[in-house]
Amino acid sequence: MNKTLKRLLLSAITLSMLFILSGCVRLGKNGKPTGTVWHLLGEPMGHLITFFAHNLGLGFGLGIVLVTVLVRLLILPLGLHQSRSAAYQAAKRDYLAPIFEPINQKMKDASTQEEKMAAQTELMQAQRENGVSMLGGMGCLPLLIQFPFFSATYFAARYTPGVLKENFLWFNLGHRDIPLMVIIAGLYLVQSWLAVKQMPEEQRKQAGITMYMTPVMMLFFGLYQPSAVVLYWFVGGIFSIIQQLITNYILKPRLKKQVEEEFKKNPPKAPKVAKPARKDVTPKGSANPTPSISTKKKNRNAGKQNRKKK
After folding, report:
1. Which end of the chain has fewer CB atoms surrounding its CB within 10 Å, N or C?
2. What's the pLDDT tens digit per position in 127-173?
């Protein structure tokens, strides 16, 4: 069995296991969470929240904060790896803009479907020859690995016994709190703004509206969740901003230099697209084409000369 096949099989098995795990948190008939992810991750998180709250006397609010910090620190390398992959592909696209922009312009100016498909093929070939991912480097595997942790932390903050009966700072963990929701929306707006800030000017205009989608969604979901869950989102929002700052001001400058050095050693390749062959417009079944006028005249003159000789 070759290495490629082994990698494909390993990836398929890993993805299958992650899909099974990510969908196993659910509420039982007794209203309590159950399932594989809950027993493996969520329940231990709940016990840790209770340990911080009761054994160390910190309260459930700080217990949720500390457990969320520990979980986010644990999966932070995965998030940074995903951000690095996306930033690396973005740096490549920026460097190769002189090659990609004329092809994109061809796609915009295409008057027929054939011309558009030809330009798309040319773009895909240019990306493939220069090692640019069509998916932008956003792999699914790191996200799938993180998802069970997000799900388990949410259920631990929401369903750990005693959490919803305690106060923290100015709000009750079991009730909805509007000021806290506004703070959450502000955090995710900052994170979205930092993400959009590093985009090219053309993409930045397109992403202007989507920048407000996450904060609005957090406000909407916060209306139906207790403050214990919103507190978990608060810590997650801070980590999202930290991850975005690391990506923008540490990873991206380094990756930009790395891409420049790589293409200096191996200059970018322009796609070699063969010109489409001319179509044969001769009607089918016309093996003996109709003779031209000059041919007809020539034949008539030859006939007259033959009669004179006779």
Report:
1. C
2. 788 878 766 555 566 677 788 888 889 889 988 898 888 888 888 88
Q: Are 251 and 80 in contact (CB under 8 A)?
A: yes
Q: How far apart are CA 99 and CA 272, in angstroms?
A: 12
